[in-house]
Amino acid sequence: MLHERPLSGLSLLAQPFIYPFVLAHTALLSIDMQRDFIEPGGFGASLGNDVSRLRSIVPACQTMLAAWRRAGGLVVHTRETHRADLSDCPPAKRLRGNPALRIGDVGPLGRILVAGEPGSQIIAELAPWPGEPVIDKPGKGAFHATGLQQMLEQRGISHLIVMGVTTEVCVQSTMREANDRGYDCLLLLDCTESYFPQFKTATAEMIQAQGAIVGWTANSTQLLSTLAESSASKTPI
Ligand code: C5J
Fold first, then answer.
1. 166 C-alpha to center of ligand 1: Å?
2. Pocket test for ligand 1, best of 170, 177, 187 (most atoms within 8 A of CB)
3. What sign results for the dihedral spanned by CA atoms 162, 164, 167, 168?
4. Interatomic CA distance for residues 237 and 110, integer angstroms
5. 91 half-sphere exposure, CB direction, 13 A CA radius
6. pTM exceeds cut of 0.90
7. What confidence category does residue 234 fall into, taking pLDDT thresholds of 50, 70 and 90?
8. 123 and 72 in contact (C-beta within 8 Å)?
9. What stretches pass through the bilayer (predicted)?
């Protein structure tokens, strides 16, 4: 089958310049595409946000996931969740937000941001496939207090292509953590969203400014083209 052949030495048109990567050393990181952020009744909605903004990226994320899986690339998912006893949720985090519905309180999607509750699940359209790593994280950044770095090291991953929500919180925090650890990161702009459009724009600008000081940005169509061209060039005539 085509996808069993490793695709190597790929590159895509990105900002501020070309992003080179090797498929076998690159993971697609899908951040916090959970009901708690995307559906009414969850954490995001409890903070007064319009969650429909986040749902708008789901079709692009689905297309990207399908193409990446078809190419044989590693997909890693994250979820922002806390233990049922909230022992991994610092009071400094819990006591901010909406005093009427805090992390751990029971809302329409179960206990807010608690592992195993309906709200903590990744939405069905972007659900992990069996065998794909899922990182439960108590922080905004996916490296804080998780085994993500060790898992990526074990798999020889040096590059992260990032999608998910929200752009300026968990996505940007994770990219900054990854950048400091030496990963080359690219953010897929049409596969990430914020409750605040101006925050998404600002995040995209600050990531790729100053010669990719945090990383690269591109639309998923660029990555889809790269994967399609690479696949076509390997098809026997
Ligand atoms: C937030 C996240 N926004 N996943 N979490 O609190 O971005």
1. 5
2. 170
3. negative
4. 54
5. 0
6. yes
7. confident
8. no
9. 12-31
Probe target for ligand 1 pocket from 80, 137, 162, 203, with the most ligand atoms within 8 Å of CB = 80
State which amino acid sits at residue 101.
Answer: L
Cα separation, 37 vs 120, whole angstroms = 9
Q: Among candidates 160, 126, 156, which has minimal Cα distance to 143?
A: 160
Buried/exposed code over 183-205 (b: 16+ C-beta within 10 A; e: otherwise): bbbbbbbbbbbbbbeeebeebbe
Is 216 within 8 Å of 186 (Cβ atoms)?
A: yes
Answer for the pair 156, 25: CB distance below 8 angstroms, yes or no.
Answer: yes
106: its two tokens: 């029971």
Q: Which two structure tokens, joined as six digits, stand for 1?
A: 């089958």
